[in-house]
Amino acid sequence: MDAASAAAGPSSSAAEAAAAGPSSSAAAARPSSSSGAEPPAAAAQPPPPAAAPQVLFQVPVQVGGASSGSGSSVARACRHHAYSRKQKSLGLLCSNFVALYDREDVETIGLDDAAKRLGVERRRIYDIVNVLESVGILVRRAKNRYTWLGFGGVPAALKELKERALREMSGSPVLLPMEESSTANLSDDEDDKLEDGDEDAESEKLSQSIDNTSDKPDAPGCRLRSDHRKEKSLGLLTQNFVKLFLTMEVETVSLDEAARLLLGEGHAESNMRTKVRRLYDIANVLSSLNLIEKTQQADTRKPAFRWLGQAKRMQENNVTVALAPVRPNKRAFGTDLTNIDNKRGRLDSAMENKAKLMQGAGNIVKTFERQLGQGNRSDFVYGPFHPAVAKKQETDDHTIKQKERRTIQDWENLAVSFRPQYQNQALNDLFGHYVEAWKSWYLDLTRETSS
DNA sequence: CTCTCCCGCCAGCAT
DNA sequence: ATGCTGGCGGGAGAG
């Protein structure tokens, strides 16, 4: 009740409606509940390599394939052990999804078909598909129909995402003239504005909703709903989450921080929770894609995610097959470790350095709030934030005194008007501060080095 | 206890 | 009207 009411209040109109149902439904829905159809042989299992076109996944677990008639004996025998969340995780489902479709002969995917084959509800497929689309692994073609692009599409998608992010940051007005007026009347937390122009190839899902209102370029009323909804889409959230990694040098981000960054500060707590829940979903599938991995922050031990950036698929036997040069010690989602990272040589080879980065990342929000509170001071320096471009190894011979400086050329062009355009005020401002800080730092540096 | 995150209701949009 | 999408948050499993 408390939760329900609390949730209902702050959130959107749709929220309370949902709030009403859950309790009852949830109860019935739980574990190996009844609810009509027997939960099929759960999710998943890595399909045989040369899977026949009609692969039907089986439960990888002890529960046994217990397909139809509810494997009475077995099921009952270990009833309470029968249900395991892990077997139904989005991550596992994603792995199976990929295993099922990542073949040359696959090109279009039907959601129903996928759901059936994987033995899950259609709803879950949407989750998977939305994030996969965000990273370019597939594209929505039509209702119920997606085209498989495969991992080959990832690099391009990431590149695109990164470019878009940088473009947004560089001040090029990305679009949405009418956004804010619209969100105003929606009682909902208008925390996040709306962002990118999203007419990029891969994100036609988004353009779709824009199409039908196309005739009137400035008819705010119409787009509102869908836009508002779109703003919160898993797909967009995925993209923004990824952008976080692509545009900042911070390697590790806790979902908490991510949520805050993506949400802004107006966070209505319940809102934060929701966002974090979504981020968990996203992180799970991104993890199964090996785009990120779970670790923990050096100092806090707080769980966080590290960007790997090398999408690769898992082989049935759980052996990961790299599609591109990947860095060594890989880790499966969920495992923890101390972050040892041999990827970037000297830059962060030092633990302290790393810890410091993390420390800074952890303080982003607080710092940001402080900044907000006292108007826009522009001389604040965000240590941990360095545009990802910086990773580029430079062979250039600059008069670089400090290691950080080595990446300057990469950013030079951005220096001029490094202005974020994230749809939410907080992120926007955050970047703004960062950029301002960086700019002045950069100017100082150039002044001092070149003269 | 907190952290994770599965689950399915149901709103909103497309057909 | 029907069907497709997918936001959402309850609440249970895992730690």
From TrEMBL:
Biased composition (Low complexity): 1-44
Keyword NAD attached: no
UniProt subcellular location: Nucleus
Recorded coiled-coil stretches: none
Entry keywords, A to Z: Cell cycle, DNA-binding, Nucleus, Repressor, Transcription, Transcription regulation
Domain E2F/DP family winged-helix DNA-binding span(s) in chain numbering: 85-150, 229-309
Major localisation: nucleus
Chain spans, region Disordered: 1-50, 170-227
Descriptive protein name: E2F/DP family winged-helix DNA-binding domain-containing protein
Biased composition (Acidic residues): 187-202
Gene Ontology molecular functions: DNA-binding transcription factor activity, RNA polymerase II-specific; RNA polymerase II cis-regulatory region sequence-specific DNA binding
